């Protein structure tokens, strides 16, 4: 059979590099169309040359000369900027990995679906900001969206051969992140460096800090709601410090199907890459007697208000997810820049949601790429004002 044409958006990141690792092990099976990155030009150019990609794109226009220079003589086309990202994503491909971080991943992911590709979705922000639009775009173009987030891949796998109407509940797990055992009073002093260390998973900086605040889990609750079309009351998050059980699906007969595996994203990426087949993957095999025990705790909403905010967003839907995500991105930037404290991030997000919904009406509407962008911009401005007013 002919090689599968694949593109990787966000190729220089943690998910992107794990994806290229799997592809690099079986080069003849794939033809690489587009690789995209941001500031890491050396990595982007190296991977694009090694994998003989058609085109390499950086998100930043000012980085184009450096990318051109790094690719000189390689035969790989170079491009830069937002429009170039979307153009690269719309080049015909069978399978596209969406692994850009943040709301910037939405438009390129939609472009991939519009050209009929299967979209492997790591960029959870796409589902949070515009879940109904992503799913409708896939349906309209006969494309499929496969979850890459480990919890959602776990749920997807537990649902194979099952009827969604027999699902009573879905439980996604959270490690609790860097501060799960800190006294709540100490959180005000937490630094970005402390927040960016994860007990179990090696991930990008932003998602690691979001794991400590549980904003990552908040995004994932919303992602679960949008991906599987479940009533929010059926979706739960539980603290599971070992990070071995990724999710559980509870059925109407009382049975719970748990997905267990080592904290290695190559499982979920590989599952999406080979779907509908299941193939061998280079992940560790768990020794249960070595692990000894799996433990669980209820999430404490005083420590992690992000979960309560996610419940509000799941009720309102419409543009609430876009506002929530944008405010979260701005608050995270401000925390990384040491402008606000760790606990203040949730306050900024909550006030942004309150202010924008207080203006009435325009949150609970049907969404399009344009109004999602508008809500995103508005929320970013509002969140900045809230940060600067103190
Ligand atoms: P990283 O920060 O490691 O990588 C992000 C990628 O996006 C890089 O290629 C980066 O380029 C690129 N990028 C950054 N900003 C922009 C922008 N404005 N426009 C276009 N491209 C940009 O993130 P992760 O790999 O950790 O995460 C990627 C996505 O996958 C996120 O949505 C995350 O939530 C999700 N995810 C990640 C998991 C993980 O284990 N890491 C697990 C589950 C989901 P460069 O680095 O060159 O600047
Ligand atoms: Mg996850």
TrEMBL record:
Q: Name one Pfam family in it.
A: DXP_reductoisom
- Name the residues that bind Mn(2+): 149, 151, 220
Q: Where is the 1-deoxy-D-xylulose 5-phosphate reductoisomerase C-terminal domain?
A: 145-228
Annotated residues that bind NADPH are located at 12-15, 38-40, 123, 125, 204
Q: Name one GO molecular function term.
A: 1-deoxy-D-xylulose-5-phosphate reductoisomerase activity
Per its UniProt record, the required cofactor names are: Mg(2+); Mn(2+)
Query: Sorted alphabetically, which PANTHER family does this protein's record hold?
Result: 1-DEOXY-D-XYLULOSE 5-PHOSPHATE REDUCTOISOMERASE (PTHR30525), 1-DEOXY-D-XYLULOSE 5-PHOSPHATE REDUCTOISOMERASE, CHLOROPLASTIC (PTHR30525:SF0)
Q: Which family does it belong to?
A: Belongs to the DXR family.
Return the protein name: 1-deoxy-D-xylulose 5-phosphate reductoisomerase
UniProt gene name: dxr
